[in-house]
Known about the structure:
The protein is mainly beta. It has one helix and ten strands.
Amino acid sequence: MNTKWILITLCLFLLSIAGYAQEAEKEIAGDEPAFKTHHRITLMMANAHVPSIAEDIEGKKNLILPAWGLDYDYWFTNKWAVGLHNNMILQHFAVEEEEEPNGVLEVSYPLTVSLVALYMPVRNLTFIAGFGREFEKTENLSLLDFGLEYGFELPDEWELSLNLKYEDKLNAYDSWLFGFGISKIFGRR
């Protein structure tokens, strides 16, 4: 099994155990107000890291690529939501393909669209997992999407969040995105 999958699984397992322990403590402490279904729209500014990026003309291999994201989530319980998460890397780059030893895939301004499930084990901490497609002018790729988000509540149904996202473009390459988002929540009050 690949090391990155072991680390992702271990992190998710440990965080869910911590979340369960805090949730049990919160149930003992007292009741929460009644839940109301709501919508959330998030604008995210991020940096993307593509580990398998090919060297550019100047010999640079590790590039941090700018990215933007626009996410929609529908919270139907206080713990679970479904969403449509989209992001775009704002640069042209080349990656070494996993399938072919000397193959290079040219990628230009890729747009990813993912259908995701969100789970909030403790207040403000959300796990994200889903699947989707990367659209790009030379080749469209299927992808698996995993993420972690921590939100800071603001007045008037606004929220700031830190986001960490891993996208595995199946049989091609993978990428990590780290950024922050600003969210507006509709219908919770």
